[in-house]
Fold this sequence. Notes:
Blueprint: H1 10-37, E1 42-50, E2 54-61, H2 68-81, H3 83-109, H4 132-168, H5 174-201, H6 212-233, H7 235-248
Antiparallel strand pairs: 1-2
Helix pairs in contact: 1-2, 1-3, 2-3, 2-4, 2-7, 3-4, 4-5, 5-6
Amino acid sequence: xxxxxxxxxxxxxxxxxxxxxxxxxxxxxxxxxxxxxxxxxxxxxxxxxxxxxxxxxxxxxxxxxxxxxxxxxxxxxxxxxxxxxxxxxxxxxxxxxxxxxxxxxxxxxxxxxxxxxxxxxxxxxxxxxxxxxxxxxxxxxxxxxxxxxxxxxxxxxxxxxxxxxxxxxxxxxxxxxxxxxxxxxxxxxxxxxxxxxxxxxxxxxxxxxxxxxxxxxxxxxxxxxxxxxxxxxxxxxxxxxxxxxxxxxxxxxxxxxxxx
Length: 260
């Protein structure tokens, strides 16, 4: 295959920008979705029983389910377009997080049609819940705050580790930089999200009568196990993506990119 990294035709340039837009859109759209869904619900992955008396439930937040696709998107961008553009998409993701927070804040401060008490507070329903928007708003604030801290750390670690492994192996062992970068960055992400969600947002379904650290460890192990499995499964799609897209875009994935 003859690559054309120096003087690509207008058609190839258009192809490259379209594919970049699709990958960036997939990344940013998934990020926005998981910030809204966030910690609105936890789903059980599986339960381990010991001696028939002690059950350990492995669960993850709904927002975690689509999250691994963001690492596949940034890995493809890193491989095909270079570290500089991958970091740019990560930075735009931070702006997106701030935009979500702003809209949620603005929507909650503007006057609406909710019933208020004599003191100007929102009336809760029989179950003690606020109107739906305010429930979502509270959960989104907690989720976005946690994800912003974890997101910046994890995504920049992902991009850095990807290029570290790529330079170390001289462009060989595609599986190593794909999995090595993702597994390290998702460990950072999982630990940060769980700790911030619990200590800042107080939104984890924990049992206060039991040791907190044990429960936090289970949440971290649950989230990381899920991400670990998905990361290993996305090796195939990553290989296929690099193989076909490098030909379609006439990009040599082993060539140095500006800013790498």
